[in-house]
Amino acid sequence: MGVRAGSLVGRVVGALVLAVVLLVVSTATAIWWTARQDSQPPSDAIVVLGSAQYNGVPSSIFEARLEHALELYADGVAPMVVTVGGKADGDMFTEAESGRAYLAEAGIPEESLLAVEEGVDTLESMRAVGVAFDERDWSSAVLVTDPWHAMRAERMAEDAGITADSSPTRQGPAVQTRTTQFRYILRETAAYLLYRATGESVAGAPGIG
């Protein structure tokens, strides 16, 4: 009896371990697949996810996103570009403000720009963008972020009431080497599974929070 019970427990534990492994692998594969897509349907707004800025100057990761948003705006994907993101303690500028200034200097008219200066991570930012969309009766967005961040950003945007597609940037530090890509996929897999399990986000390196 004891041997049979032990064997049953072993099989159950083995099945649970296999289920977890399959969940992780399938999620990582979905993140990789989403990262390779580029969806640019006509939308109410292009939403640029924030990243680090230094005294009002976007970091290289943020700049790559902003440059891609410029291309989408020039292609007529949406009449508005929304930058989003708050600021860390001690910062003088928000990510959203820095992004808006960069795009304005690049030639996008002020009336076509909206800075949503809230959010210390993707979840907070998407919820703030959802409120801004509701206030303006907007419903659809093309999200601009790093490829590995796209699936989680889409999920959070959808949960905030936005019909979201993503057009990831193909430039910047997040896509430079296979090692970097593998590291981002692993971290995004953990972040995505945490969000789906708890409804919470996690702050961290660019593309993680």
TrEMBL record:
The chain crosses the membrane at residues 12-33. Gene3D superfamilies: HUPs. GO terms for cellular component: plasma membrane. It holds the Pfam family DUF218. Residues 44-190 form the DUF218 domain. Keywords: Membrane, Transmembrane, Transmembrane helix. The keyword Transferase does not apply. The keyword Iron does not apply. PANTHER family: DUF218 DOMAIN-CONTAINING PROTEIN (PTHR30336:SF20), INNER MEMBRANE PROTEIN, PROBABLE PERMEASE (PTHR30336). This is Uncharacterized SAM-binding protein YcdF, DUF218 family. The lineage of its organism: Bacteria, Bacillati, Actinomycetota, Actinomycetes, Geodermatophilales.
